[in-house]
Design a protein that fits this description.
about 30% strand; Methane Monooxygenase Hydroxylase, Chain G, domain 1; alpha+beta; 6 helices; about 35% helix
C-alpha cells in the first residue's frame, strides 16, 4: 500500500509539472539568450519639446520609448498575454547618455505574448544636454539628439533595429517650443562609442533638426536699431552752419543706440562669444558714433572758414554711410 501511494504521488507531481500553472510558478530566465544576437526593435516618439536653452546647452523634452524582442524561453503556447515585472526576466537595461535631469513615469513592466515576444514601454521627461553654437543667432539652426546605449552588452550580443516600429517613431507636429520650428527628424542605430572605453556598445537615438524663428528678433531688435542708424544720418542734410542742431541730433542718436543695447540685452543669448547680431549691433553703434565725429569735423571746417569742404563732406557722407551700413548688414547677417 505504501509503494502504491508513493507511485501515485510521483505521478501526480509529474502531471502538475506539465500544467501551465506550474510552468508559470517556475523562475524565469534572467540572462540573455546565448548563441545568437538578440534583435531588439525600438520606437522613439518625441511627444513634446517644451524648451531649448542655449545658455545651459540643453533642451527639455517629453519622450516615449517602446522596445520589443523575442525570447523563445518565455514562449507558452495557448497562454494569454502576461504582464510581468521587468526584473523577473532578461530585458535590456538601456541608459540615456545625454540626460541631465530625466524622470521615467511608467511602471517597470513588460508584456509577454504566448510566442515569447516581449514589449517594454516607458516615458521620459526632463532635460537633455546638447551642444548648441549660436554664432549665427538669430538665423541659427541646430541638430538635437537623445542618445540611448546598452552598457552591459557588446555589439555582437544585441542589435537595435527600427524597421517594424517606424510608424510609432517621430516628432509631434506642433511641439510647445514657440521660438523654434522643427523641420525634420531621423533615428539612428549606430553603436555608441563611450569616451571611457575604446569599444562600441549597442545604441540607438532620435535626432531632430530645428530652425530658430527669426521674425520676432528682426522686428523687435534689428529693424528698430536700423531706424536709429538712419536717424543719425539726418545730420548730413542739415546746414553745416547749424552746428548746435547737428551735434544735438548726433548725440541723441548715440545715447539712443546705447540705451537700446542695454534695454534689449535680455533678448540676446548669454554666451561667451559674439553672435551675428552682436556684430550687427556693434557695427551699428560704431556708425552712429562716426556720424557724431563727422559732425565735429564739419564744425571744425566751418570754424576754419572752409564751408565748401564741410558741405562736400556732407555730400560724401550721404553716400558713404548707407554703403557702409549695407556692407555691415551683409557681412554680419548674411555672409
Amino acid at each position: 500500500m505504501t509503494v502504491l501511494r508513493a507511485w501515485l504521488g510521483g505521478l501526480v507531481a509529474f502531471v502538475l509539472t506539465m500544467l501551465p500553472g506550474r510552468a508559470l510558478a517556475e523562475p524565469y530566465p534572467t540572462s540573455r539568450p546565448h548563441g545568437t544576437t538578440t534583435q531588439i526593435e525600438f520606437a522613439l516618439a518625441l511627444l513634446d519639446i517644451s524648451n531649448i536653452d542655449t545658455a545651459s546647452q540643453s533642451f527639455t523634452a517629453d519622450l516615449g520609448m517602446v522596445l520589443r524582442w523575442h525570447d523563445p524561453r518565455l514562449a507558452l503556447p495557448g497562454s494569454e498575454l502576461r504582464t510581468l515585472d521587468r526584473t523577473q526576466i532578461w530585458s535590456p537595461e538601456v541608459s540615456i547618455v545625454n540626460q541631465r535631469d530625466v524622470t521615467s513615469h511608467l511602471p517597470e513592466l513588460v508584456d509577454v505574448s504566448a510566442d515569447g515576444t516581449v514589449v517594454y514601454r516607458q516615458r521620459f521627461t526632463g532635460t537633455f544636454s546638447n551642444r548648441i553654437n549660436v554664432a549665427d543667432f538669430p538665423f541659427d539652426e541646430h541638430d538635437f539628439r537623445v542618445q540611448f546605449m546598452l552598457p552591459a552588452h557588446g555589439t555582437g550580443d544585441v542589435r537595435f533595429v527600427n524597421g517594424a516600429l517606424r510608424d510609432r517613431t517621430g516628432v509631434e507636429q506642433n511641439p510647445l517650443v514657440v521660438d523654434w520650428d522643427v523641420r525634420s527628424w531621423r533615428v539612428d542605430n549606430t553603436p555608441y562609442v563611450t569616451k571611457l572605453t575604446s569599444y562600441a556598445r549597442p545604441g540607438f537615438a532620435i535626432e531632430f533638426h530645428a530652425v530658430r524663428r527669426s521674425g520676432f528678433f528682426v522686428m523687435k531688435l534689428l529693424f528698430p536699431l536700423a531706424l536709429v542708424v538712419f536717424m543719425s544720418w539726418a545730420v548730413f542734410w542739415l546746414d553745416p552752419e547749424r552746428l548746435d542742431a547737428q551735434v544735438g541730433m548726433a548725440a541723441t542718436a548715440v545715447l539712443t543706440v546705447i540705451t537700446y543695447r542695454f534695454a534689449f540685452d535680455s533678448l540676446l543669448p548669454r554666451v561667451s562669444y559674439l553672435t551675428r547680431v552682436d556684430y550687427f549691433i556693434s557695427g551699428s553703434t560704431a556708425l552712429v558714433f562716426l556720424s557724431l565725429l563727422q559732425v565735429v569735423v564739419t564744425g571744425a571746417l566751418m570754424t576754419g572758414n572752409r564751408a565748401a569742404h564741410a558741405r562736400r563732406l556732407d555730400v560724401w557722407s550721404r553716400i558713404g554711410f548707407p554703403v557702409m551700413f549695407v556692407v555691415l548688414s551683409w557681412w554680419s547677417l548674411v555672409a
